[in-house]
Amino acid sequence: MEVFRRRLANVDALPQLCLLGVLSGLLTGGLMVVFRGVLELGALTFMPDGDPEAFERLAVPLRVVLPLIAVALIGVWLWRMPKSAGKIGIGHVIERLTYHQGKMPLRNWITQWWVGLVALLGGLSAGREGPAIHLGAAASSWIGQAMRLPHNSLRVLVGCGTAAGIAASFNTPIAGVIFAMEVVMMEYTITGFMPVILASTTGAVVSQLAYGSQPAFSVPSVHLVSLFDLPWIVVTAILIGLVAGGFVRLAKPTTWQTRLPVWGRFLAVGVAVAALAWWYPQVQGMGYDSLENMLVGQPALDVLIALALGKLALTALTIAFGVPVSIIGPILVAGAALGSLCGLLWAALLPALGSSPVMFSLLGMAAMMGAVLQAPLAALMALLELTHNSTILLPGMLAVVVAVLVARQGYHCSGFFIATLDDQGLHPLQRPLLQALSRVAVPAVMERSVARAPRVLSRAQAQELLAGKPTWLVVSRENDNPPVGLKAAGLARLMLDEKWQDEARFDLLEIPGQRVDLAPIALQATLSEAFEQLNKYGVDALYVEHTTAPLIRKISGIITRDAIENYYRNK
C-alpha cells in the first residue's frame, strides 16, 4: 500500500488512478441505483402507479400541499445546522475541490440524501443530477481518504464520482466525462481524463444492469430539413441565451431576500410552487415526463409557456430563497420547452421548409444547458448521446455557441456555479500555478534523506547521525516549538574543521550552518497546499509528517520552496 501511495503522489500514476476510477464508478453507480430505488419506494406511498413524476394525476389538494410539506421538512432539517453543513450539490463539490482538495464532509452528504429525496417527492422544481454528483463525488473521495491516499488523487476521485453520477443518471458516459472536466475540475489532462472515462463507463454499466440500456428519453430521429433553418436557430439561441443569463441573475440572492427570515423564504417557495402547480402540475418535480412528451408528442401551448418560463422562474426563486435544489433537470426541461415554442413559431412562418419543433426542443435543451453552466462541450455531448444522431451536431454547435456567447457577453455570466460561489466570496477558478501544483503530492518532490536530532549532541552522537548520510537534520526545540532544519553537510564540515576538533558537544542551533525555520505539512498534501503553507507561516521549508501508529508522528522528509518552484519550472 505504501508503494501504491507513493506512485499516486506523482503526476503520471495512470495505472493506479485508472484502478481508482473503476472503483469510483462501481460505488457511484451503486449509489445511484439506491437513490433511484429509494425515490421510487417513496413514490409508492402516495403517487399514482408509484411514478415519482406523476404529479399531473394527483388530486389538486394533494399536489398543492406537497410543496408546502417539502419546504417544511427541509427547513426543519436545516434549522439547527450551521450554514456550512447545509451546502450541497454541484456548487458544494466545486468548493470542496478548490479549497479543501476534494475532502467531503459526511454531514453535508447525509443532508444531500434528505433534501434531494424530499424536494423530488415533494414536487419542488428540482433535478436528481445535483444529488447524483454530490453523492458520487463524496463517496469516491472517501475511497481515497480511507486509504490515506495523496490529496492529488482525491481530486481525480471527485472528478470520477462526478462523471459516474451523470453517466448513471442519463446513461450518457461521454457527457459525464466532459461535464466533470469542464464544470467541476475545470481542467483537461491525460491523467484526469483516463480514470474519469473509466469511472463514467463503469457507472453507466452499473445503471444499465439495474435499469436497462435504454436512453433516458425516447428521442425520434430528427434532422435539419433545410439550411433556411439556420437563421432561425440563431434567433432561438439568442433568445435562450438571454433567458439563461436572466435565470442566473434571478437565482442570485438579493439584499431584500436575505433580510427575510428563513421560514418566510421557505414558505414563499412552497406557496409559489403550489400556486403554479394548481393549474400546471407539469412544473413540479424533475419534469422528465413533460420533456418526453415534447419529444414524442406535442403539449398544449400554455403548458409549454408554463414549462419554459414558469418552471425556470420557480427554480431560480427556490435557489435564491435558500432552498438547495439541483438545477440541471429543470433547465433542460425549460430549454426544451422554449425551443419547442420557437419551433412552432417557425413552422407557422415556413410550414413547407421549417424543421420539426422536436429538433428545436433538442437544440433548446442543449443551448440552455450550455448557456446556464457555460459548458458548451458538455451540452453538445449530452445532445449527441441523448439523440444518437450525429447529424444534429451541426445545428447543435451553432445553437450552443450562440447561446453561451449571448449569456456570457450580455450578462457577464461565467456559469451558474461559478457565479454562485463568487457571490459567497469564493473564487473556484484557480491560478495556473496552484492548479498545476495541485496535480502532484508532496512525496513526489520532498527530500526523503532526513534524520531527527536533538538540539545538543555529543561528537560520537553526531558521527553516528552522519553515518546514515542524511541531507537534512530536523532539530528539535524545547517547549513544543516547531523544529528547525539544518543542512547535514554543515555539521559534517564543522566536525572536520581543526577549530572544532576539541569541541565535545555541539549545539545545532548555535553552530555555523545553513538553517531554515520549518512548518508542518501532511504527507498526503499536494504541492499547492505546501506552497500555501509556506506563505502562511513565512518559511522556506516544511517538514513532512504522517501517523505511523496511534499518537505517533513520524517525519518523512523535508520540502523546500526551491524544490516546488524548480518542479513547476521543469514541468
Automatic annotation (TrEMBL):
SUPFAM superfamilies in alphabetical order: Clc chloride channel
Pfam families: Voltage_CLC
Lineage of producing organism: Bacteria, Pseudomonadati, Pseudomonadota, Gammaproteobacteria, Oceanospirillales
UniProt KW keywords: Chloride, Chloride channel, Ion channel, Ion transport, Membrane, Transmembrane, Transmembrane helix, Transport
Identification of the protein by name: H+/Cl-antiporter ClcA
Membrane topology: Multi-pass membrane protein
GO CC terms of this entry: chloride channel complex
Keyword Transport on entry: yes
Transmembrane found in the keyword field: yes
GO MF terms, alphabetically ordered: chloride channel activity
Transmembrane regions listed in the UniProt entry: 12-38, 58-79, 106-126, 156-181, 188-210, 230-250, 262-280, 300-323, 330-353, 359-384, 391-411
InterPro entries in UniProt: Cl-channel_core, ClC, ClC-type_chloride_channel
Major place of residence: membrane
CDD domains noted in UniProt: Voltage_gated_ClC (cd00400)
Location within or outside the cell: Membrane
